[in-house]
Structure formats: structure tokens, C-alpha cells
């Protein structure tokens, strides 16, 4: 570095949005806005329904409430900035604001994963050891499980912005993304980023392997218990209680896995395709989760119907 050359640390990043599709940004913003609105509406309905209905004050639905709140927080940390880019050409984002967005996105994603593990454990206890369900999954235990998941997420993600903060950013400031994604920001640094890359991939792999491993273990135990049941009706009923959770797992992990792999090994994948999938990974699951649970869970479906159609309340209550 020459003595008479002055380098200025950049103070803002320029978020491109979706490279190659800038001419369609206005139209892309419409489904983003729709998904944002549906997420806030759907998850609010789930939370209000569970709060108002005493029969839903059970661990399974407490976890669902936590998932709904986390989903709203996750989409609120990304969608407003995306809409700013797509509709108002608000591409610039302050360096520290970018790090904050990065921190919140990855924290809420890891909390989401922890909640899916907790819900798998809930189904395991309910089906495999039902007689101990109320003694194992008490309200304090549910709260502790959430706090452990949240603390794990915070402690795992906190080093990420701190490690980025120590890097010099002098020349590159254009992020080819619709939000501040970890690897997209790291790639712009004017220094060796091996530590950042290694830490990022180790966090992603450890969370995915551990959480998917625990979920898979729970479902192996659940299937073993279900197939030991003599009645076909009992087997169908037991598996039916897991249907919504399995759908949520598939919706959450499939785009996440695709996004993770294409960012690291999918060199031939078009940047626009990768960024669309990376954005869908943050926008679609929070929208779909309340619909899945609303459709698949009879208690919630009945309560929602009675909430919005009070004239049907009496007939619905007779069916419960």
C-alpha cells in the first residue's frame, strides 16, 4: 500500500436487487408486497386464534405462536427494504444497518430451525410417551426450549457481523442481492476472508445437520410407535397430527438447502435464479406456515371459521 495513497472505508452498500431483472423490479415488488401482507395477516390470525381459544392453550400451539411471531419478525427484516429497492429505487443501505439486517435475518432463520426441532419433539412426546406429555412439556419447559433456541441463534450469529466489522472495505460496495446476505457482503472485502467464510459455512452446516438430525430421529421414533398401533384409524390419526409439521419442514428447508448449495458450489446457476431462490427462502415459508396449520389443524380451522363467521359458531362448536 503506497504511503501517498489514501483509502476511505466505505460507509454504505448499494443493493442491486435482482441482477439482470432490474427492468422488472416494479412487477417483482407486487408478489413481494402480497407475500408480506399475507404473512402479517395469516400469522396474526393464528396468534389471535390461539390466544382467544382456551382449548388451544397447549404446548403444540404455544410453539406455533412462537413460530408465527418469528416468521413475522423474519419477513419484516427483509421485505420492507426489498420493496424500497423494487418500487422506490432505494438501493443504498448504511454499512451498520446492513450488518444489523444480516444479523437479524440469520438469527431468525436459526430460531425458526430450533422451533421446528421443538415441534418435532412435541409430536414425539405426544405419540410415543403420551402419558407423560403434560409432565414433560409444561409451560415453563416450553419457554425454556424457546429461550435456549433463541440464545443459540444469537450466540452463533453474533460473531458474523463482528468478523465483518474488522474487514477493510475500500473499493467494492455493490451487493448483487436484494438484501444483506452474509456471503454477498463478505465477498466485497478488500482482504482475506477465509475466517469469515469458514465460520459462515460451519454455522450453516452445524445448524442444518444437528437440527435435521434431531427432527429425523424424532420421526423415526414416531413412525416406529405409529406402526405398532393395531388400529388403522389410530395410525391415521397419529400421523395426521404430524402432517402440518412435516409440510412446514419441507417448505422451510428445501429452498434453504438449494440457496446454501448454489451459493457455494452452483457456479453455473444464474445470479438472478440464485437470488430469487434466496429471497423466496425468506418470503415463502412465513406466508405458507399459517396456511398449512390453518388447513391441516382442525382445531385452528374451526376456531378461525367461528372467529370470522360468528353465525356459524354454534354449529362449529357442536362438531368439536
Task: From the alpha carbons, calculate the radius of gyration and give it in angstroms.
Answer: 22 Å
Shape, principal axes of CA atoms: globular
Number of strands: 3
Largest sheet geometry: 3 strands, mixed
Strand order of the largest sheet: 2-1-3
- Which structural class best describes the helix and strand composition? mainly alpha
Percent in strands: under 5%
Characterize the structure shown.
The chain has 13 helices and three strands, in the order βαααβααααβαααααα. It has 320 residues and is mainly alpha-helical. The N terminus is likely disordered. α2 packs antiparallel against α4. The longest helix is centred in the middle third of the chain and has 34 residues. Strands 2-1-3 form a three-stranded mixed sheet. It is globular, with a radius of gyration of 22 Å.
Describe this protein with a few key phrases:
320 residues, mainly alpha, three-stranded mixed sheet, 13 helices, 3% strand, globular
In short:
This protein is mainly α and 320 residues long. The chain has helices at 25-52, 59-76, 79-88, 95-128, 133-136, 139-157, 159-165, 182-186, 194-227, 232-264, 271-296, 298-308, 313-319, and strands spanning 12-15, 92-94, 174-175.
Helices and strands, with pairings:
Layout: E1 12-15, H1 25-52, H2 59-76, H3 79-88, E2 92-94, H4 95-128, H5 133-136, H6 139-157, H7 159-165, E3 174-175, H8 182-186, H9 194-227, H10 232-264, H11 271-296, H12 298-308, H13 313-319
